[in-house]
Design a protein that fits this description.
With 305 residues, this protein is α/β, with parallel strands linked by helices. A seven-stranded mixed β-sheet has the order 3-2-1-4-5-7-6, sandwiched between helices. Helix 2 crosses helix 5.
Amino acid sequence: PCPMLSFWVVVALAAPAAEGYGVGDRSRRWVLGGLAGVAWAPWRLEARSVPALEAAKRLSDGEFYVAWPYRFAADVVPFLSACATRGDPESILAAMDLWAARYPMFQVGPVKGKILEDALRKAKPRVAAEIGTFVGYSALRIARALPAEGGKLACVEASEEFAAVARRVLDFAGLENAIVVVAKGSDCAPDLRRILGDEAKLDFLFLDHDKEAYADDLTTLETERLVRQGTVVLADNVVFPGAPGYLDHVGEPAYSTTLFPAPYESRGWETNWEPRDDAMSLSTRLLDELSTTTTTTIEEDNNRR
């Protein structure tokens, strides 16, 4: 372990210099976990033998970083194995919430998670998709809300690393109706059709990926006839950091949209470690492109007469 320990010491010394790039504080937290994980391996293994979320909650920050160092996305998997119950999505979500409270993560969290689940209860979808899966937190919430018979969720994640972790998390939860694919939102239509069916229409779509791509990617799914009249679209982070052009796109007459204020789910370098206001937008597609085209044609015929 000496070479590895030396590596983390070098990284620890370099982390403060990275603050100008907005990563110093978070880097030091990861480094602390790395140093502690190497230096106190026996204690770490002992901590991992305690399969109780309540025991993990009682750990101080320092003890938690020693017991559960976080350097890669996959590091959450052994924590879930120890502190959650296989086949129980609720216990897995609770463990992920605790992990995110100690380590900043890109997941919607319990407050926005309730908005997501309320939208799902109202929409009652059978066919759903999400773009921006990360390690599967929101996918857990969506997949468990789908009907046991015929319910399908396609999860689109641009990172192979994150997608691999999401597959393990969903498998641990026993949610076989969720399939994770590696793709960008702009070119995911073929994957969605392969998973959901050639003639599939999305009942529910959750957007939580590159915010600047929301409007363009939704337009693509409309053009591909995956988003049609009646599709419900929930989008995260439309206030902070914001999704340029998206709220205009889901305005009337094409969509009916409601904003649900909620705090930004994480405090990190992007928020200057301060709380930030945010919102999720819930939109229902009101128009169908085919019917819109037909209406336009009839109007043009009437004008010609």
